[in-house]
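quick one, 95 residues, struct below
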Amino acid sequence: MEIDAKMVEYVAELSKLRLSEDEKVLMQQDLTRVLQYMDILNSLDTSAVQPLTHVSGVENVLREDVAAGSFGRDKILQNAIAVEDGCFKVPQTVE
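---
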């Protein structure tokens, strides 16, 4: 695929960029180089390469999900500033 001035203007418009004429020429050259590089990558045989999910070999180590007991209501409310009917009492935020 050949990148021409019309394509650069179209991409700049989609990107909401205002490019000067010099910048358009540089952008055309840069985009052409990117596509040439992609052609090189596409020509490589990657059939024997396993797909990667991460660049590094690090994997998440997750603990077993086990249900456990929690604190009782009295213990949770012991540091509350105000308690009413076994619940936290907070200032009214909506009238």
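Residues 5-43 form a domain with the Histone, subunit A fold (CATH 1.10.20.60).
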